[in-house]
Every structure is written in structure tokens, then in C-alpha cells.
Design goal:
Blueprint lengths: L4 H6 L10 E4 L4 E4 L5 E5 L2 E2 L20
Antiparallel strand pairs: 1-2, 2-3, 3-4
Length: about 70
């Protein structure tokens, strides 16, 4: 499922820096352009919870602690 480009342009990292996110349609993820957290997209809905995000290089099951 593809996210609307207008929606993607409004989304930002929920951490204190609120940096824009890069959308990877093939991986169904949004990645913070500053901290590198990777947020999943489940059933077409971006999950922008810090507890659900992973850091680059971390295994899929590891969540980043706040």
C-alpha cells in the first residue's frame, strides 16, 4: 500500500528534534533523517511510536528505548 505523498510531507519524527521522515515504500517504513530511527507502516498506517522504532542495523525485533 502506498502512502499519500502529502501525508508523508507532513509526518515528522516524534522525538524532540521533529525531523522529516524518508518513506521507503518497498520496505514499508519511514526513516528519520536525523536520528535514523526506522518506523514501521502497518496496514497502511505509520506507527510513529518511539518504542516501536528500530535503529539502523538493529534486528527487526529490537525496539529502541527512549
Amino acid at each position: 500500500m502506498t502512502l499519500d505523498p502529502q501525508l508523508v510531507s507532513l509526518l515528522a519524527c516524534p522525538d524532540t528534534h521533529h525531523t522529516p521522515l524518508d518513506y521507503d515504500e518497498a520496505a514499508a517504513t519511514l526513516t528519520c533523517t536525523q536520528c535514523g530511527r526506522v518506523f514501521p507502516i502497518r496496514d497502511g498506517i505509520p506507527v510513529l511510536l518511539l518504542d516501536e522504532a528500530t535503529m539502523p542495523g538493529a534486528s527487526t525485533g529490537d525496539a529502541e528505548a527512549p
